[in-house]
Amino acid sequence: MGDFGVGDDGFVLDGRPVRLLSGALHYFRVHEGHWGHRLAMLRAMGLNCAETYVPWNLHEPEPGRSRDVGALGRFLDAAREAGLWAVVRPGPYICAEWENGGLPSWLTAEVGARARTRDERYMGRVADWFGRLAEEIVPRQVDRGGPVVMVQVENEYGSYGSDAEYPRLLAGLLRDVGVTVPLCTSDGPEEHMLSAGSVPGVLATVNFGANAREAFDVLRRYRADGPLMCMEFWCGWFDHWGGGHTVRDAGDAAAVLREILECGASVNLYMAHGGTSFAGWAGANRGGALHDGPLEPDVTSYDYDAPIDERGAPTPKFWAFRRVLAGYADGPLPEPPPLPPVLEAEARTQWAGWASLDGVLEALGGPEVTEPVPPTFEELGVERGLVRYALDVPGPRRPYPLSVRGLRDLAVVYVDGVRAGTLAGEDAVLAEPVAGPARVELWVESLGRVNYGPRLGEAKGITGGVLHERQYLHGVRARGLRLEALDAAGAVRAVASDGVPGDGAPGLYRGTVVVRGAGDARLELPGWTRGFVWVDGFCLGRYWSAGPQRSLYVPGPVLREGVNDVWLLELEGAGRDPLLRPV
After folding, report:
1. Is the torsion defined by CA of 343, 348, 354, 355 positive or negative?
2. Could you tell me the sign of the dihedral formed by the alpha carbons of 76, 79, 85, 86, in that order?
3. Domain Beta-galactosidase galactose-binding spans what residues (predicted)?
4. Measured distance CA(529)–CA(524) in Å, rounded
């Protein structure tokens, strides 16, 4: 039991001053079999607290249907067992480079621009969600013998909206469901962000990657007393498909950490360990200063150039941070735990069958609907996955440009069954004109919903229409394929299978890999273009030849000794047999 509180200039536990030395570690980005190791790594770095977001969309895939909300409680129990406190950030919006910023796509489709406002319908959904989430958080608060010392209200709301009443109402909801530990908010260190995102009587914290003293000066001008805390010290950064890999110098990051601590502040390293956005849950940004430009989808790896890398190994940044944090420890720091086992020997996948995309859609897709204009992913109930749009160009007519308005995000186009190109962008035009009559199919893939900025909650799919010259083509037949439809081995085995094609055609490739000495591994995909991989029903996430990520991390607990099932959903063009290597 403990009484954790907010003093005039610091945190107190049972009347004695304490400093939160926290590290972000998302339970949903780490295989549960590795939680204990990663939490022990936090302790070895010199931290006394673990912080995690909670993604609403992961846990409520449909209104009122829960999916393993208990994972949060199990993670908090693991943190307590590791000797760590915990900070929980339940949103409802979390950003986190996560699909839709953690908000369910069914919710943003339902309320539109009213998300993250005090709209009654939206707030009613939030109240229901908080009520369910409270079952995992409330019994594990520090005053009840658990690890939870603080809960955050929303996330960086001051970067999004100006209604200061909205976060105040959220704070009230958290109190109503039984949260008794201190609440906090987190925002950028700018006064307009702090004024909109903070709540009277609730601790305000700031997020930054450098210039700690300047950031805390802004916070002090806004709040004269209370603990100083950097809720997100950005010690690394994330990557986008088609971009480069971001790296931050360990010495530079350690110097900023030292500056934060010299200010007498508490800190949360974002990220201490990033992990992986398995199962296609990676989000996306919009480019440009106003976050309203081209789509920039996030890669599957959330390594983040963190001090603990994607597979849990210490980096030079880990050791640099440990040297800084050791000066604030009560005694000698524990040594890092041994790394989890790695794959004993490399193994190559052997293919046993293949099914066309049409065959997969026929077996595992949703119902086909016919609408005057293309329905969105949201209207078809597809959160992560793809939609096949089919329509007819009337004729006879001479060749005209075929264009797609409001395309989100990527479409592989077929004309009379022949691949005609790939389209991307809000206003995309096929390279070769199309004559009528013709049957056109557009296989559209969501590359991740926007997780930050004014375009949060935007719909996916074809959101405008398909035009032949200047004429809209109506009578669109659409059918969606949800990624989770391929998670069950029984469902995949039920898909009719043919021999593996020699031309690398897109489709569902099914095979096995024989493992000796199961452990952490990487799956290399030479020559494959873009798609998703499952190992024994566990979706590793998206691969894409666009880079910078060139392989997928395979957690050791996913593999089993001997024969393992592998299936790949390739959307453009297959390559050589995938290779499993020790990590």
Report:
1. positive
2. negative
3. 506-564
4. 12
pLDDT digit string (tens) for 236-249? 999 999 999 999 99
**pTM of the entire structure?**
0.97
**What is the Cα–Cα distance from 328 to 266, expressed in whole angstroms?**
11
Instruction: Give which of 318, 326, 321, 300 is closest to 540, Cα–Cα.
Output: 300
Q: How far is CA 249 from CA 210, 254, 311, 313, 548, in A?
A: 13, 9, 20, 17, 19
Say whether pLDDT at 482 is over 60: yes
For residue 490, what pLDDT is reported? 87
pLDDT of 231 reads: 98
Identity of the residue numbered 514: V
Going by pLDDT thresholds of 50, 70 and 90, the confidence category of residue 494 is confident
* Two structure tokens written together for 448: 């991740």
Helices marked H in 8-158 — which ranges? 35-45, 56-59, 70-81, 105-111, 120-137
**CB-based contacts of 545, cutoff 8 Å, min separation 6:** 528, 529, 530
Q: How far apart are CA 233 and CA 140, in angstroms?
A: 26
Report the chain's mean pLDDT, rounded to a whole number.
97
List, in order of start, the domains of the chain with CATH numbers.
19-283+293-326 (3.20.20.80), 347-352+498-582 (2.60.120.260), 357-483 (2.60.120.260)
**pLDDT score recorded for residue 72:** 98
- Using CA atoms, how far residue 426 sits from 383, 404, 407, 431, 472, in Å, is 19, 8, 5, 15, 16
Give the largest CA-CA distance in the chain: 84
Please name which of 270, 257, 480 lies closest in space to residue 383, comparing C-alpha atoms. 480
Backbone conformation region of residue 211, classed left if phi is above 0, alpha if psi is from -120 to 50, else beta: left
DSSP 499: P
The confidence band for 489, taking pLDDT boundaries of 50, 70 and 90, is confident
Peptide bond preceding 332: is omega within 30 degrees of 0, i.e. cis? no
| Dist. CA 427–CA 510, nearest whole Å | 36
Rounded to 5 degrees, φ, ψ at 507 are 150, -170
- Average pLDDT of 105-112? 97
Q: What is the DSSP string of 259-302?
A: HHHHTT-EEEEEEEE--B-GGGTB-EEE-TTTT-SSEEEBPSB-
Q: Is pLDDT above 60 for 144?
A: yes
Residue 527's pLDDT is: 96
pLDDT for res 31: 98
Q: Tell me whether residue 284 is exposed, middle or buried, using C-beta atoms within 10 angstroms of its C-beta: 0 to 12, 13 to 18, 19 or more.
A: buried
Task: Please report the pLDDT score of residue 359 as a whole number.
Answer: 97
Report the C-alpha gap between 129 and 127 in whole angstroms: 5
> What average pLDDT score do residues 301-320 get?
98
Model confidence band, residue 416 (pLDDT cutoffs 50, 70, 90):
very high
Which residue numbers are catalytic? 156, 232
Structure tokens at 445: 């893939």
Q: Is the peptide bond before 271 cis (omega within 30 degrees of 0)?
A: yes
C-alpha–C-alpha distance, residues 103 and 99, integer Å: 8
Query: Over the stretch 347-382, which tens digit does the pLDDT of each residue have?
Result: 999 999 999 999 999 999 999 999 999 999 999 999
Decide: helix, strand or coil at residue 495.
Answer: coil
